[in-house]
Amino acid sequence: MSFKSWVAKLLANKVVRKVTALHVKAEISQKQLLVDLINYSKGTQFGKDHHFEKIIDFESFKTQVPVRDYEALKNYANRVVAGESDVLYPGKPVYFAKTSGTTSGSKYIPITKDSIKTHIAAARNALLYHIYNTGNSDFVNGKMIFLQGSPELEKSNGILIGRLSGIVYHHVPNYLLKNRLPGYTTNCINDWEEKVDAVVEETIGENMTLISGIPPWVIMYFEKLRDKSGGKKIIEIFPNLSLFIHGGVNFAPYESQIVELIGKRIPMIETFPASEGFFAFQNNDKDDGLLLNLEGKMFYEFIPVESLGNDVPTRIPLWEVELNINYALVVTSNAGLWAYNVGDTVKFVSLNPYKIRVTGRTKHFLSAFGEHVIGEEVTKAMQQACAQCNAIVKEFHVAPFISEQGQKSSYHEWFVEFVSPPESLIEFVQKLDNAMCQQNEYYKDLVEGQLLQPLKLSQLQANGFKNYQKSIGKLGGQNKVGRLANGRDVANQLQPWLV
Q1: Are residues 324 and 347 in contact, defined by beta-carbon separation less than 8 angstroms?
Q2: Which of 257, 289, 332, 421 lies 20 to 30 Å (CA to CA) from residue 205?
Q3: pLDDT tens digits for range 365-379
Q4: Which residues, 6+ apart, have CB-to-CB distance to 25 below 8 Å?
Q5: What are phi and psi of 346, to 5 degrees?
Q6: What is the CA radius of gyration of the chain?
Q7: pTM exceeds 0.90
Q8: In this structure, is the dihedral angle defined by the CA atoms of residues 153, 159, 164 and 165, taken in order, positive or negative?
Q9: What are the chain's domains?
Q10: Backbone torsions φ then ψ of 77, nearest 5 degrees
């Protein structure tokens, strides 16, 4: 065992004990964290506007600070972007994580000198838990790769601006720097296909032990490796590959394809990072629940999704959540976010410790007819149909088709790109529709009541989704296709790539 492996095992034991203790006393630590954040930020403009001096606990916090999304926080964020100090959090942030907003254009999420540490610590803890559970620390001696956006940062009013993955690139611990691939020059390539080609050239002869990234873009990397090597499996190219880390999208639709490309199943860890915080990670690859990050100086609230549209939504602290209820995730943090609706929905699958499963996005659902279908439901239905029909799907998107007068009733249209199509597409559609009826009772009632036709499937050509994303300038990096939509913007743009 190398010295680095030995140290990693010692650190793993220490971190697991610390995190376990935080989950045991979660109510106490969350209450104290909220008070500490409020007291520290009383002098900010946000603190003055919301009378932080009156806040002594969660109840008074709810009274003074409404839940906001980026649209509602934008006036404050714009002042920070313009260079003002002490607006949302004392001083200025050191970074802005720039993301694409669905209605507001670019979003600028502040990252402070305090909050960047929590992003790095959570990523580290995901690895340390794997070491603790498996005893395998040998991967720390090999080469590691994260397929990410460019680490090049802009500077405005003294604040660095870039994609989250590019920001994190500059904070990789020193002891991992020699292990990290690809190099800075390769990572700075903006054209995603050109970049992946360069990553292949740089890594194909290396001792890769850990690979990390968003699943659809890792698949592209694996496919290019396979083509470059004359059809070899990834495990033949990298025989010491022992860990795959993924996040950013629901993994289930990509799992079988990634296992096929690798050539065998290796340990895999799911993570839940976002510009607003690193919220959770899979602490045991035998359990698909994600351990909520309580070390990250984030105070959590949860809103039942059916309450989201209310003038005064129900706000539940961590210590009052229940199992298997679909909640919108709300966070208050040392990045200067206050009762911020992150936009993700989660369900708790364990309360001791607190573990969640990501179920979708608050704005990515389909309810054109009152059915309120969420990402978790379409993913499970697709998994079930693929298993029954021996099919593998690369990517899919679901949109409503709303009939006009004189037409047949409306329906859900599924745009699907297959890796391995089913023998009978008709049977596959029937199985998929039956699975959706099992997943969502409202959908079932609409179909049985003939208010909706059974779903329709439109098949895309090979690389159809990739070509679509390339056409809109969102190929690679952290970009991904939304599973669901209430309209047909994406559906209409996919038309050129239909079979």
Answers
A1: yes
A2: 257
A3: 787 777 878 888 899
A4: none
A5: -140, 160
A6: 23
A7: no
A8: positive
A9: 3-115+276-280+287-361 (no CATH), 137-266 (no CATH), 375-497 (3.30.300)
A10: -60, -40
